[in-house]
Specification:
The chain is mainly alpha-helical. It has 14 helices and five strands. The chain folds into two domains: 213 residues, HUPs (Rossmann fold, 3-Layer(aba) Sandwich); 90 residues, Tyrosyl-Transfer RNA Synthetase (Orthogonal Bundle), CATH 1.10.240.10. The structure holds adenosine monophosphate and tryptophan. Adenosine monophosphate binds next to α1.
């Protein structure tokens, strides 16, 4: 059995770009590997390395869980759980923090970038942002993961995880499996409807450029009808000169399974209004069943919690022997 593990941040508003670019990609990866067991963890402990509003965070955890389940993740076969529901992650994270040289953490580009974004970071950024990769190492190493499919921006963190595992193994004896990084394959990249030169983003203050998974059909229709385009009136794919129209073609292709060239041919002279209307209807038709399932999960939080708690219990039953093995080798007290 091949163990595939990934972590998803419950931060910001989930949008159609996350769904098409990340969640569907996860399904493809798992389906490509024969006899795979996947671990999907909602990394809420990573989310708090940056300031979060508690109510919003809780809601984002539920929404992310609901989307994963609505997308068809088989939660009985795979293991879906919030990171904070298995305390072994923070426990092992501390062990790794203690054996990770600061020089390794200093090199992490994500930390350097995030710290730069915050002025006077020494006063306002918690040390958790610095230790972030050691917690990520725990997510991965506790389950003897074989494969870690993540975006290229996370490659350095996975490499650091391998370094930490090797260091532990050489200090205390063979304990942790060395995982393999797997780049997410090229996925559909969706751009902002109002600023089609930049990616649709979870964190953008302005909601007009983003199709959120919780938007109603009416909101989706309005946002697409108001999408920024150009002053020609010809529907064709040209991401340089016509980023707005090209983005709509990519979206329509992704949700219908058709080729964007065929769609462009069909709508070439139809006018932007008619084209946008067709894109909106295609998106609504595609998203509605997923959104309905998502709402069903969100309308029954106790059931959702039960699924997540069961996932966490299964995760714990796998990670705990690993933690015990590590602490015993290190000479700590913890027992069964
Ligand atoms: P983020 O929203 O940046 O936390 O990213 C979560 C996941 O969604 C990552 O795998 C991203 O690659 C993917 N993703 C985020 N935004 C987009 C987008 N606009 N188009 C396609 N994929 C995206
Ligand atoms: N750091 C990852 C990100 O920002 C999320 C993450 C946390 C993760 N733990 C993980 C990804 C373990 C893969 C494996 O996207």
């Amino acid at each position: 059995m091949t163990k595939i593990l990934t972590g998803l941040q419950p931060s910001g508003t989930l949008h159609i770009g996350n769904y098409l670019g990340s969640i569907l990609n996860w399904h493809d990866t798992v389906n490509e590997v024969p006899n795979a067991q996947a671990f999907l963890t909602i990394v809420d402990l990573h989310a708090i390395t940056i300031k979060q509003n508690p109510d919003a965070l809780r809601q984002q955890i539920y929404e992310l869980a609901a989307v994963l389940l609505a997308s068809g993740v088989d939660y009985k076969r795979h293991v879906v759980f919030p990171q904070s529901a298995n305390p072994d992650h923070t426990y092992a994270g501390w062990l790794y923090t203690c054996i990770t040289p600061m020089g390794w953490l200093d090199r992490m580009t994500q930390f350097k970038e995030k710290k730069q974004k915050t002025t006077e970071y020494k006063e306002s950024v918690g040390a958790g942002l610095y230790a972030y990769p050691t917690l990520m190492a725990a997510d991965i190493l506790l389950y003897d993961a074989d494969l870690v499919p993540v975006g290229i921006d996370q490659k350095q963190h996975v490499e650091l995880t391998c370094d930490i595992a090797n260091r532990f193994n050489s200090l205390y004896g063979e304990t942790f499996r060395i995982p393999e990084f797997k780049t997410n394959k090229e996925t559909t990249k969706i751009f902002d409807l109002q600023h089609p030169e930049k990616k649709m983003s979870k964190s953008d203050q302005d909601d007009a450029g983003r199709i959120s998974l919780t938007d109603s059909s009416d909101q989706i229709r309005k946002k697409i009808m108001r999408a920024v385009t150009d002053d020609e009136n010809e529907v064709r794919f040209d991401s340089e000169k016509k980023p707005g129209i090209s983005n709509l073609l990519v979206i329509m292709a992704a949700v219908t399974g058709r080729k964007k060239e065929d769609i462009a041919t069909e709508f070439r002279t139809a006018g932007y209004g008619a084209f946008k209307g067709a894109v909106a209807e295609a998106v609504i038709t595609y998203l509605s069943p997923v959104q309905q399932k998502m709402r069903d999960y969100l309308d029954d939080i106790p059931q959702l919690q039960q699924i997540l708690d069961e996932g966490a219990a299964r995760a714990h039953s796998i990670s705990h022997p690993k933690v015990l093995e590590a602490v015993t080798k290190m000479g700590l007290y913890l027992h069964g």
